[in-house]
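pinned: reference chain
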Amino acid sequence: MCLIVFAWHVMPGAPLVAAANRDEFYDRPAAPAGAWPDYPHIFGGRDLQGGGSWMGISQQGANGPRFAALTNIRGPQERRLDAPSRGALVADFLAGDLSAEDYIARIAPGADAYNGFNLVLGDRERMFWFSNRGAQDPRNGKELAPGIYGISNSLLDSPWPKVLRTKAQFASLLCQGAPDDAFFEMLADTTRASDLRLPDTGIERDLERVLSAVCIETAGYGTRTSTVVKLYNDAPAELHERVLQ
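pinned: its structure tokens
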């Protein structure tokens, strides 16, 4: 998952509304969103190479349905080929019964073994953000207050052009009570940022420009799925996915 915007305790009756794009190499095998054969209460996509997931929901939890999502942090000079798969962090939370706070406390001591990541996880009562990069309390991550948030391949709410643009559009759609199709249309935006607004993440300028779009299109890498997730107070959670590549 390389872009996620979400509203936490903003919409009446729906503690979480999230919209996200997963960017990945086209030749990395993955299963589309569905119930997992080994954990039927989990619904989400699955990475068939690493065995984990980038986003999913579990209908079981002490406080109702659970949610987890992950984005990678871009750091080409820090990337280690022998690091464990970050997708396991999503899968293990959804398959287990630890609270988000306890799960973060469990993984925090070994988080530096992974390449850079953001992790958002919780249920309809509490939601947390945790990263193994940046300055934060490593014991319990950051519990999120009600609001609208955005993450791409940097830390929470870093002011990248596509994060700012998508958060604004997302907020407008929520205010309109827009249907899911409108969120998927938002996620299909291929507009690239101007050079003056591009972040500097240690990659070539031409590639930085390509990756600045909400929906990425290149010959071998790009946006493969778009997803809309909703956690409700009094109904099962929903996850709807559109496969692009």
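why pinned: Residues 3-158+220-243 form a domain with the Penicillin V Acylase; Chain A fold (CATH 3.60.60.10). The longest strand covers residues 14-25.
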